[in-house]
Amino acid sequence: MHGLCLPDTIEFMPGTITGVTAGTGLTGGGTSGSVTLNVNTSTVQSRVSSSCAAGSSIRQINSDGSVVCQTDTNSGGTVTSVGTGAGLTGGPITGSGTVSISTDGVTNTMIANGAVTDSKISGTISSSKINNI
C-alpha cells in the first residue's frame, strides 16, 4: 500500500512553545502549561469611561478610565451688560443687540490729531468745514 494512510496509523505531533514573555504593557506569561497575558493597567490606560457635569472639567483620568472632576474656576466669565458711551447707540445690551455709531456721534474731541489724512477724505470739503487753517 504505497501512499495510503489509514486512520489508525496517523499520529499528530503538536509543536512545543518553550515560553511566552509579557512585553511592554502586559503581565503574565510563562514557560509551561496554560499561560495568560493581561493588560498592565499601571502602564496602559483604559478608555475614558465617564465625563464631568457642566461647570466642571476633567482633572485626572485614572488607569481604569474613570475620571476625577473639578469645578471649572475659569469658564471665561459671563458678560451681563454692554453699555454704550459717548457717540454710540444701542446699549445697554443685556442679551443680544447691536452697538452703532449714533448720528453725529463722532465729535472733534474724539478724533486724534493727525488721524484724518488726505487719503481718508473722499469728495470735496468746503473751507467752512475746516477749522484752524
Give the topology.
Blueprint: E1 20-21, E2 26-30, E3 37-39, E4 56-61, E5 67-71, E6 88-89, E7 100-101
Antiparallel strand pairs: 1-2, 2-3, 4-5, 6-7
In short:
By secondary structure, the chain is mainly beta.
Explain how this protein is built.
This protein is an all-beta fold and 133 residues long. The protein has a domain at 46-73. It has no helices and 7 strands. It has strands at residues 20-21, 26-30, 37-39, 56-61, 67-71, 88-89, 100-101. It has a 3-stranded antiparallel sheet with strand order 1-2-3, with no helix packed on it. A two-stranded antiparallel ribbon has the order 4-5. A hairpin with a 4-residue loop joins β1 (20-21) and β2 (26-30). It is rod-shaped, with a radius of gyration of 40 Å. It starts with 19 loop residues before the first strand and ends in a 32-residue tail after the last strand. The model has no long low-confidence stretch (mean pLDDT 81).
Amount of beta strand: 15-25%
Structural class computed from helices and strand pairing: mainly beta
- Radius of gyration over all CA atoms, rounded: 40 Å
* Alpha plus pi helix count: 0
Q: How many beta strands in the DSSP annotation?
A: 7
User: What is the overall silhouette?
Assistant: rod-shaped
Order of the strands making up the biggest sheet: 1-2-3
Specify the helix fraction band.
under 10%
Low-confidence stretches: none
From N to C, what is the helix and strand string? EEEEEEE
End-to-end Cα distance = 127 Å
Q: Main β-sheet: number of strands, strand sense, barrel status?
A: 3 strands, antiparallel
Mean pLDDT: 81
